[in-house]
Predict the 3D structure of the following.
Amino acid sequence: MNIVWLCLGFVLMPNIGFNQQSDLSGSILRVAGLQMNVTNNITANKERILSAIREAASGKARFLATPEGSLSGYRSEFDQTELSTALQEVISLAAELKLGLLLGTCFKDDQGLCYNQIRIYAPEGHFIGAHSKILVCSPIDKPGTGEMLQYQQGVLQTFVWNNIRFGALVCNDLWATPGYTTLTNPYLPLKLKEMGAQVIFHSINSGTSQRYRNFHESSAELWALNLKIPIMEVSAAHGNEKINAQSGLIDQNGMRSVVVSDTGDHLFFCEIELAVKP
């Protein structure tokens, strides 16, 4: 495991994760990201996330963001009772350490319907809400199969904490990747910007096929550039294989101002300059 410390030219406030600025640059939010190997072992995933919570809190982050399916595993078949027990441990430690969560995990409701989510918890410990994946994937030659059968689609929304409005997207939500998307592209990043989001958090578990890498990375960069909004991306690692969507931070100019290694497990920190409110 590696910890990546990055300073983007801002003055870091050692005891403050959210720093209100007086000029037109908006505000600065310190967020940790965990690029981790996501397994189908909930206990193993939980232990890695608990360790990252301690590291992120020690590093004065206000939130920790994790990849798609980071607690449950990237799957729809799992024991919800086991997941709920692990989730409560994760939430409890984060609340104790005053760390917010942008937690990628699949989750089943009381009817047993499964959602692929980013569950959002405030540093104060309360549940803010959840974004459920909207652009669920299915192969172009078999529309209506794959994730379209496994997961319920969510409804786009923004979230507010400490007067910051932000959006969250799961993997294909941002890209509408050719070959894996048979739904009509709703251009979700654009809609989030129109809804007032000042930053987008993107939770990813897209594998290692390098054929898709340029598309994935350039899509996110061009959305950040054209919407003038920062996008923080957190990908799942796949051991020593190169992933096809890089973790880190894309600034409002579409530049990757924080770049994380495309192999292995890493905890990293971003100082996010938020888009100015409309």
In short: The chain is about 25% helix and 25% strand.
